[in-house]
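G., the chain you wanted modeled:
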Amino acid sequence: MISRLDAVGNPLGVRSPRSLGWNQLLLACGVGLLGMLVWLLWKFRQRRRHLVTGPVPRPVPPPAYLDTAKALWQLHMEELPAKGEGRAFLDRLATQLRHYLVGRFGIGAAEMTPQEINTALVARGYSPRIGRAFGGLLAACDRPRYAPQQVAPALCHDLFVQAIELVGQVRVEARFTPVPAKLALVGQKSWSHLVRWLRALPSRTKRIVGEGARD
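Predicted structure as tokens:
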């Protein structure tokens, strides 16, 4: 050990402090490396948790027919064809059918032509009959909308009936899927109204509306 006393026992003078040789750049790099190690450790723990528990499941949307039934019943109650607004009626009918196709089959039907909808449904593995039925109905709604003459109420009525039948054929009811109480009440009530109205029509075969599938 080096003595801090002189030859006669007096304390030596205090020397000027000397630098320990720390370099600011090296210090910054060390702090950065430490931060990176902490981040990598956190990511590793997150990955282990993901492997153990699996990804967080996305919420399953409610059955698409509930919103569609509510919109169709509202459209029916407005009686647009009887007021000479057949084009507006068919425009809204086609819009609701496209929204239903988006929710029910997961295709971008809002921006598709009827033929593209048919192709998309077939590509997803659905029966060509379903694609042709929806594509044909949408095409039938589109043609009179751009015709010079007024749209006959009878045509609006017939296309509306076909829309209810098609939705009834492919709709999926909620069995295990949680549905907001208000939507479940209003949507199912609207669907019941539509079915009763359809069954009350004279001399028409109710060939499509049924109990529906369950998820």
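Residues 64-214 form one domain.

Shout if anything looks off.
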